[in-house]
């Protein structure tokens, strides 16, 4: 593969992966306007974000078997078409409940792009390069939270929140055309993959019972759910509690995204000297300590706007190191079931992230404590899962070696 082709594929896969995050972030500055127009509260509007996360969780489980059965491209096309239609519907939603449902459908469409792009990394690149490729994808994905809220703030101010969803519709169309004309079919359809419920569940069970998969998939998902709590709580935190304007909120969100993007690229350099396992462990310790400081300080009212931004920056930077490595190690054991493994990993991540975002939305209080408490808790739980899961992996490896010795 030439360098030019390598770059183009990563850019295109990154664009597909970024569609979901862009759909999440771009309408955040419009929360107050949506709440006013649909006669509801900002906290209730945040449930439309939870609806999006639910749609991604469900959709990924749906697309996993489809990607293995029919190849990567056809399910991707169907998902993007669903996304485009749902985006138009969101633009003309007449109530918050309608918006929540349409956001869920929009997410089901967008997650085809997310699952296909992750599976294609496993298809197109050597396993040894997966962590580096995922880090590069995070660089492309990371542009979305830098651009999306800022653009969303200006679009909302100039044209209203409805226009944000029309912009998303155009982005979906661009990704569809780019996929049709620029992506190779990286996986030959496997007609042995059944679409009946029992074989699908059995296939997922095979993936789920692999110690390396469930250890790193759960660790990564729980740690990453802190980001979901932050995204759901940030409009309330910055625009209500700290009373910043929509445009300013967009710039703050963009600045904080630099932590996530920058650390993911530092991760590529660190992989030359340290293993993925070492980097995950170090990142989670730093993230947990940051979460503890954050919740203690928030409870006692120690932190103003600047200190809050600083702590969020450190927290997100830890995720930028942990996430590419947990993703790579989760998928490493699979070649035949790459689509299913990718879908299951994404569904676990989004499912746990959904719970975190709902937890923030349920507490309709003028306080940052629900968001901060969830962020701190998820960090500590992820570290615990990693500690015990690594022991299970080690035990399996040792048992495998003993079996080989007995066989010979």
TrEMBL record:
Keywords: Cell membrane, Membrane, Transmembrane, Transmembrane helix, Transport. InterPro entries: Efflux_drug-R_Bcr/CmlA, MFS, MFS_dom, MFS_trans_sf. The lineage of its organism: Bacteria, Pseudomonadati, Bacteroidota, Sphingobacteriia, Sphingobacteriales. It is a multi-pass membrane protein. GO terms for cellular component: plasma membrane. GO terms for molecular function: sodium:proton antiporter activity; xenobiotic transmembrane transporter activity. One of its GO terms (biological process) is xenobiotic detoxification by transmembrane export across the plasma membrane. Pfam families: MFS_1. It is found in: Cell membrane. This is MFS transporter, DHA1 family, bicyclomycin/chloramphenicol resistance protein. The chain crosses the membrane at residues 45-64, 76-94, 100-121, 133-155, 161-183, 204-231, 251-271, 278-296, 302-322, 343-363, 369-388. NCBIfam families: efflux_Bcr_CflA. Gene3D superfamilies: Multidrug resistance protein D (1.20.1720.10). Belongs to the major facilitator superfamily. Bcr/CmlA family. Its main location: membrane. Residues 9-394 form the Major facilitator superfamily (MFS) profile domain.
């Amino acid at each position: 593969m030439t360098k030019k082709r390598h770059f183009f594929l990563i850019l295109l896969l990154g664009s597909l992966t970024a569609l979901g995050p862009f759909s999440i972030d771009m309408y955040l500055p419009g929360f107050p306007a949506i709440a006013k127009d649909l006669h509801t509260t900002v906290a209730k509007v945040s449930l439309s974000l939870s609806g999006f996360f639910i749609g991604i969780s469900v959709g990924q489980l749906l697309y996993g078997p489809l990607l293995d059965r029919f190849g990567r491209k056809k399910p991707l096309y169907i998902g993007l078409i669903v996304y485009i239609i749902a985006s138009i519907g969101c633009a003309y939603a007449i109530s918050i409940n309608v918006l929540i449902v349409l956001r869920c459908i929009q997410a089901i469409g967008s997650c085809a792009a997310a699952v296909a792009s992750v599976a294609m990394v496993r298809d197109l690149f050597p396993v040894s390069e997966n962590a580096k490729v995922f880090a590069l994808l995070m660089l492309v994905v990371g542009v979305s939270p830098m651009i999306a809220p800022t653009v969303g703030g200006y679009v909302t101010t100039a044209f209203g929140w409805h226009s944000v969803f029309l912009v998303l519709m155009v982005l979906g169309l661009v990704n569809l055309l780019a996929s049709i004309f620029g992506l190779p079919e990286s996986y030959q359809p496997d007609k042995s993959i059944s679409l009946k419920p029992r074989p699908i569940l059995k296939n997922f069970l095979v993936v789920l019972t692999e110690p390396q998969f469930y250890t790193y998939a759960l660790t990564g998902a729980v740690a990453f759910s802190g980001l979901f709590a932050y995204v759901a709580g940030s409009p309330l935190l910055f625009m209500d509690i700290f009373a910043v304007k929509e445009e300013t909120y967009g710039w703050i969100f963009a600045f904080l995204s630099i932590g996530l993007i920058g650390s993911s690229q530092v991760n590529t350099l660190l992989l030359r000297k340290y293993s993925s396992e070492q980097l995950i462990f170090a990142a989670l310790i730093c993230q947990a300590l940051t979460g503890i400081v954050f919740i203690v300080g928030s409870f006692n009212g120690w932190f103003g706007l600047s200190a809050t931004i600083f702590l969020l920056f450190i927290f997100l930077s830890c995720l930028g190191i942990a996430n590419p490595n947990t993703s790579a190690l989760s998928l490493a054991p699979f070649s035949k079931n790459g689509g299913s493994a990718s879908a299951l990993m994404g569904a676990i991540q989004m499912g746990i992230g959904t719970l975190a975002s709902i937890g923030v939305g349920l507490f309709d209080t003028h306080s940052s404590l629900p968001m901060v408490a969830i962020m701190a808790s998820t960090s500590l739980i992820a570290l615990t899962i990693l500690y015990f899961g690594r022991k299970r992996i080690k035990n399996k490896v040792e048992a495998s070696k003993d079996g080989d010795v007995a066989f010979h």
